[in-house]
Amino acid sequence: MNGIYYYVIAFIVIWVVAIVFKSQLTNHGVEVNFPLLMWKTSRLHGFIDRLANRAPRFWKWYMNIGIVISAAFMVIMAVSLIYSLKTLMDAPSVSLIVPGVEVPGSPIFIPLLSGLIALATVLIVHEFSHGILSRVEKIKVNSIGLLLFAIIPGAFVEPNEDELKELDRPAKMRIYVAGSMANLSLAAVALIIMMLLSSFVIPAVFDQDGMEVTRLTDDGNAINYLKEGMVIREVNNVSVNDSASYQKGISTLKPNQTVDILTDQGHVSFMLKENPNNKSLGYMGVQAQAHNVIVDSYDNQFYTPLLWIIMPLNELLFWIGFLNFAVGTFNLLPMKPLDGGHLLENILSYIAPENVYKPIVTFMSFFMGIIIVVSLVVGFTGGIF
Asked: 251 near 278, Cβ under 8 Å?
């Protein structure tokens, strides 16, 4: 089933329950104001206070480094977004990513379950870090909770705005960069563990004997000839036993060429289309991953079934790393209301008066926003207006 249908079903179920049981939910701190569903709680205040009080000097030291790292990413992200204008019509640099849903204009497809788990880690570490640094800086946290805008989940930690305004600039910046630094830190940890598994554990436990079809897209012809679960063994007589040989086989494919695929279920041949991201390349519409089998020395043991956990765990770690890095760096774009916009404003306040830096931040926010909106529109429409 297309992932979009899961979201539609969830949308209907959640909002029917929310409306029918609105009075009961309200008694438990839930605000039901369609399309916004918000749950506020005070139960997590003590947890955040304990984390903040356990090592306040560490948090300040860590986020002082975070200010430098975040400022560097803010510049990199701004330059990259501006530079993307050169290739905007051919390959938009910004696209929506929704777990389980093939989004027009997005070259990335995130599996539903692992994508939702990874997204949850993004929200939790980001918002909790803002809360921890707020308490480290002795700022009251007004509320903590979860929200749902239609079907889009979110989390929030709301520091006291009046107290926040009274802080000095370094303290403010530590609070602003805390969320993205937490995302970047989690991304680094997840990707390091993933690489250790990929480099040492998986090669020792598994062998590869081809590429397994995991998804077929609607914009390619392979969907009419292949099925998910098939194992590709050859592409145009090029033997395929791992990702490298598969890439070698498909790298020479051209549009309107007939490709011959040998699978574990026989031969298929079909005409290629143009690659949506590079019209000079042929496009099958296949997403595949290495097909793994357990090596003989680990096979038929009492623990053998447990070894299959390694592969989905490795995939989950990848998406945790990917989404935390993507959201963490995007949030550092120099535009309000993103944290990067607040960071830019505080940095500029060191070197310019308010009547100078405020218009600069406003312009950057508008300029970055326009590029993002245009990129999304071009992605959805394929560059056709």
From this structure: no
Residue that the structure tokens 């990848």 belong to: 318
Specify the pairing of strand 258-263 against strand 231-235. Answer: antiparallel
- Mean pLDDT over the full length of the chain: 90
Span 120-160, pLDDT tens digits: 999 999 999 999 999 999 999 988 888 887 777 888 888 99
Tens digit of each residue's pLDDT (9 = 90 or more) over 197-254: 999 999 999 998 899 999 888 888 999 999 999 999 999 988 998 888 998 888 888 9
Distance (Å) of CA 336 to CA 96, 258, 316? 19, 50, 31
Please list, residue by residue across 78-114, b when 16 or more beta carbons sit within 10 angstroms of its beta carbon and e when fewer do.
Answer: beebeeeeeebeebbbbbebbbbbbbebbeebbbeeb
8 Å CB contact between 173 and 346: yes
Residue 289, strand partner residues: 212
What is the distance between the alpha carbons of residues 239 and 227, in angstroms, rounded to a whole number? 20
Per mean pLDDT, which range of 30-34, 102-106, 196-200 is the poorest? Answer: 102-106
Q: Is 237 exposed, middle or buried (0-12, 13-18, 19+ CB in 10 A)?
A: exposed
Closest residue by Cα to residue 166 from 128, 144, 139, 141: 139
User: What digits encode the pLDDT tens for the residues 7-17?
Assistant: 888 889 988 99
Q: Given this model, what pLDDT does residue 103 score?
A: 73
The neighbour count for residue 48, using CB atoms within 10 Å, is: 22
* Residue 279 three-state SS: strand
First to last CA, the chain: 31
The position carrying tokens 């049981």 is 21
Question: What CATH number belongs to 218-284?
Answer: 2.30.42.10
Q: Which residues contact 385 (CB under 8 A, 6 or more apart)?
A: 377
Amino acid at 289: Q
Start-end of CATH 2.30.42.10 domains in the chain: 218-284
> What does residue 152 show for φ and ψ, rounded to 5 degrees?
-90, 115
In residues, how long is the chain?
A: 385
